[in-house]
Amino acid sequence: CECPTGFIFKHGACVDDDECPRGSSICPINSLCRNTPGSYVCDCISGYKMIAERAFCDDINECEISPNICEQRCINVQGSYYCLCKEGYRLNNDKQTCRDLDECSMIANLCQYHCVNTPGSYKCICPSGFSVERGRHCQDIDECHLGTHNCRIDDICVNLRGDFRCYSIDCPQGYEKLGNK
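That's the EGF-like domain-containing protein sequence above. Prediction below.
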């Protein structure tokens, strides 16, 4: 008795021939063989798609197909993808979204005076009379040297740490003040 293609004669009947025995290399790389009645099908494993004209499984670029799959950065790899976060953020447990890192609470004494968390970063703030230097340190502002004081023209301005003072000099009788000297 002759059986149709994909079937074999066994125990007096035509039965399906399993073309997908263990270790079979009948299907291309990155695919699995699935037996069907009288034939078989090669199914690409997750992360791959069948390129019919070349009969092989090619990587699916999930980052191009679904550009919003990752909140910040998507990296395609063979058969999959992974998400990355920008500096100042950490990947959440869902492996797709990112959360802001609070650098101020994570790093003790990050700023010399006061630290304010911002999205993806932080900002150091100094008290009045000081400016932020090198991003984290407070430097005294010399109002006298910069001319940002409010002393009278005939006063003497003296810079103090975080402040300034205006001193008025009175000349002895018979003398006259020249400018602010």
